[in-house]
Amino acid sequence: MRTVASSSDPLHLSRRAGLVEPFHAMDVFAAAGRARQAGVDVISLAVGQPADPAPRGVREAAISKATEGRLSYTNALGLDELRQAIAQHYRDSYGVVVSPARIAVTSGSSAGFNLAFLSLFDHGDRVAITRPGYPAYRNILSVLGLEVEEISTAETGYLTADSLREVHGRKSLKGLLFASPANPTGASMPEEALRELVDVAAELGIALISDEIYHRLNYTGPDITAAAFSDDVVIINSFSKYYCMTGWRIGWMVLPENLVRPVERVAQSLYISAPEISQIAACQAFQCTEELDAIRLRYQQSRELMMDALPRLGLPLLAPMDGAFYAYCDISAYSEDSQAFARTMLEQTGVAASTGIDFDPIEGHKSLRFSYCEKPERVAEAMERLKEWLNAGS
Ligand SMILES: Cc1ncc(COP(=O)(O)O)c(C=O)c1O
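That is the input. Now the predicted structure with pyridoxal-5'-phosphate docked in place:
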C-alpha cells in the first residue's frame, strides 16, 4: 500500500491570499442559521439576494435545455442570441445603441470584475473605489496586486467628479470602479453627476468601470447607464438582482471596442465560457418584465416601510434609499460596535442584518445594512420587533 507523504511544515501560502478579508456578515449569517435550527423565527434582512425564484420563462427555458441533455462550452464572449438580447435591452430600456459585438457574457458580474481588472490594469496600479462599497471590489483588487484607494461618499451619497480630481491630484489613479445604485447604501447618482464623472475620468485618463447591477431597481428616477455618455466606459451588469438569478451565475459587460479581444482572451483561459444553460435561460429574462416588476413593487412597499421606520427607531439613514434593496443606517445612538450590536439584535429579536465593517473598514463599526428583499409583512414584523427591543433598552 502506498502511503501519502506528509510534512510537519504547513503548506506555504501566498501573501496575496492573506489580503482578502473574510465577510464579517458571515458570522451573523452563521449565528442566524444556528438560531433558526434552535427554533427561533429569524427574519433575515442580512442577505443581498432576492427571496423569489427566477421568472417562469427563464426556468422553463432551462428545463427544456436540460431535458434535451447536452450542455456545452460556448464562445468565451457568450451565445450570439444572448448578446443580441442584451444589446436590444440597451435600445429598449435606455435608448442607447450598443453593438452585440461589444458585449461579453460573464459568470455573474463577479467574473466581469476579474476580466476588467486583468485587461485594464497591471500589478501595482492604483484603482479607486467608494467607501462604503461592495467589499469584493477591495478584495479582488488586493488579491490581484492592485493598490486600492477608497473615496468616501459620506457627504453626497455618491462619488463626485471633484473628489475624483482631488484624489487623482494627490497620487495618480489608473482606474475607478463605482456602482449606482450602490451597495450598501442604495444611493443613486444624478444624471449630471454621472455625466461629469465620465467626462472628468476621460480627461484625466482614468479607466472607468460602472457596476450597474442594481439597475431596474431605481425607485426615484430612471436608470442612467454610463454607456449613454461614452463608448470607453466598461459597464458591468448581472442577472442576479432584478432578474432574481443569483445562483445561475450569469451577467454581462459592455466593453470599449479595443477591450473586446483582450477580455475574450483572458476569459477563454479563466472561465472558457459562462454556463450554457444559464445563457439560454437568460435570453428569456428580458421577456419577464411583468413578473419581475410585481416583485419590484413589493420591494417598493418594503422600502417605504423601512424608510419611515428606521429613523423613528433612532437609526437614521446614512444615504438616501434611491434604489437596490438596502437601507444603510447609523447605529451610533446605541453602539459603536456594529458586530456586537448585530449579534445582540439577532439574539434578542431574531432580526439579522449586515454589519457596516464589511463595507467600510473605517466608519463601518457605527453602521448596519438592512436588506429589504424579504416580503413586506416580514419587513414590517422586523421593524416592530426592533421598536420593542430599542424602546425597552432606552
Ligand atoms: C454592487 C454589487 N456588485 C456585484 C455583486 C456580485 O453579483 P453577481 O456576481 O452575482 O453578479 C454584488 C452582489 O451582492 C453587488 O452588490
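The mean pLDDT is 94.
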